[in-house]
Specification:
By secondary structure, the chain is mainly beta. It folds into two domains: 117 residues, CalX-beta domain (Immunoglobulin-like); 108 residues, Lipoxygenase-1 (Sandwich), CATH 2.60.60. 7% of the residues lie in helices and 45% in strands. The N and C termini lie far apart (78 Å).
Amino acid sequence: MKNLFKILALVIAPILLNSCDEYEAGSEVNSPLSYGFEKLTVNVEIEEADPIYPVKVYSTQVVDYDRTILFEIDPTSTALTSDYEPFTSNSIVIPAGSNFGSIDMQFNHENLSLASARVLKLNLIQPDDATAVALTTSTTSISYKAKCVNNLVELSLILDRWGSETTWEITKDGVPVASGGPYTDTSTNALQAEKKFTLCLEDGSYVFTINDAYGDGMYTAAGVVGSYQITSNGSVVVSRQTWGDGTRTYYTRSVNFTL
């Protein structure tokens, strides 16, 4: 009786496996014809010297003719149109004799965030000749941000109530490399939420300069005094310093730091 059960299991198992109508494109040799992106999710850091990412579509089968696979941008994407050049086409060609094709996504590195990633989500439109649906890769989510190949520098500002009075600048050899402000005011005498600015700066000597248009620093009242701090690659290079004492005696403070 045990042998009979073993024989039945060997006969039934292939039937059950072949009855599935979902397949991972590119993962099975003799599966039904299916298409899918290379990965469901991708995390990439884009370098200024190489701002290209190839978007790939795979097929479970190789044929002797070219195939054109259409895709569309999902409206739930958080990607900004200024982050990358428009696609040259909304289709990807899988050449004859191959099981995949690709289209280059060219990023505008200067527009990308160093601190937080944005996501471009693409949906694959299954061709008419597909006989099965890719199990997980009918969509792909490309999470991207800029890669810093120098020093990852973060400026932290905690403003007082009068953010509109505050501006700042970082210079190297007298040349500005970053700046910010003025900011918004608040309706109550309280410190504002911390603002963080992420920069990618090469080695060298820098000057951080902060200005207050009113002349009392980042000061609203006793206990409401703003501050600043600069870190580089996670290490503090300008320690947290408050700025302001309620008297109109200065408008500018400058701090030197080296990376």
